[in-house]
Amino acid sequence: xxxxxxxxxxxxxxxxxxxxLIVGLVSAFLPWHSTTIPTVLGSTTSGSHNAFxxxxxxxxxxxxxxxxxxxxxRNYVPDISIPALPFTDSxxxxxxxxxxxxxxxLWLATGGGYGSVHAYASDFPGYSSGPxxxxxxxxxAGVAVGAGGYLVQSEPQxxxxxxxxxxxxxSPSDPPPAMPPPAPPAPSS
Length: 189
Fold this sequence. Notes:
The protein is an alpha+beta fold. It has four helices and five strands, in the order ββαββααβα. α1 runs antiparallel to α4 and α2 packs antiparallel against α3 (about 90-110).
C-alpha cells in the first residue's frame, strides 16, 4: 500500500530503498569490530572500530552516499534534472544494494583488518575480538536497498537511454567515414 510522504505517493520499494540507505549511513558510524583486552587486576580495556577503519567500509559508505544523492535528487529536488542514465533507477539501487552487501560481508570475513592486531593478548582469559552489531546492521541495510531496487522495477522510471547506445561499434559493413574535400590551392602572388 503506498504511503504519502511530502505530498508524494511512495511505494514499498521506494521505502525499502530510502530506509536501507538511511540505516546504512547510520550503521557506518556504529561499531563494526570490538576488542576487549584484560589488564592488571581483572579490569579490562576495550575499543571498537566503525566502517571507516577499512577500505571495504569506505566503499560501503561511498555506495550509500551515491544512493542517497540519487534518491534525493530524483524524489525531492525537481529543479535539478539529471541527464539520462544508462540504467534505470531500479538497476542502480539494486547494484548499490549488492555493493553494500558485499562490502559489509567482506568486512565481516576479514575482521576489518583488526583480527590479528592484538594477537599477543589472545591467550589471556577475558580477551575477545570480533565483529560488532554495526556490521550486521550494514548487511541488513544492503539487503533492504537491493530488495527495494528490485521492487521499484515495476514503477515508472525517469527517461533513460537504451544500454545499446553506450555499446555501439561500427560494423564491418558500414561505409567508411567521408573524407573532407581537399583545401583549395593557395592563391599565388
